[in-house]
C-alpha cells in the first residue's frame, strides 16, 4: 500500500503563492513513488497579489485556498482539517507564498511568525516522528519552528551567481539551526528530526536539475515514511 502524503500549498504562482513547477514536480515524484496524496492550503487572504506578467503588485484580493485549488485541480481541503494521524508524511513546496502567506519571512525574516495551522501541522508531524519534506524557501518554516534542526536552502555563498538568496542560510543559522550546503540536484536529511530539504529555485539552475533535486527529497521522505 502506498504512503499517504499531505501536500501543503500557499497559493498559485511564484511571486505570491506556491511555485507551480515545484508543486508539480513534487506531485509527479509522489505519483511515481506510489503515494496517495491529498492537498491542503490555509483558508486565508493572501498577503499580496502580484501581476506575474509585469512583476508588480496588484490591488486585487485573493484567497490562498481558492488560488491553491487551481494547482490541485479543485481537489483540495482547508489546512485546518488536516489530521496528522491520517498521513505518513507532509511536504511543502516553495514559492514566495510560503514566505508571505504561510509565514511572514518575506517581511520579518528570522523574526517572522508562522501561520497557526502551518505551525500546528508541522508540530503534529514532528511529534508523531513522521517525515517533513520542504523545498526552496520552505525550509525556513522548519528553522523557525524547530530550533536546532538541519536544513538546506542550497549554498551559503552566491557561488557563480547561482545562489542570489544565499543570505537566507545565515538567517537560518541565527535561528540556532544548522545550514547544510547542497547542490540543486541534492537534498539533505536531518535524521534526528526526519526533515528533508532541497533548494529547488533558490538556485538558478536548469529546470530538470530542480526537478531531480525535488525527486531526491520526495524519495527520502517516502523512505523515512
Automatic annotation (TrEMBL):
Coiled coil: none
Secretion signal span: none
Cited NCBIfam families: PRK11780.1
The name this protein goes by in its record: GAL3A protein
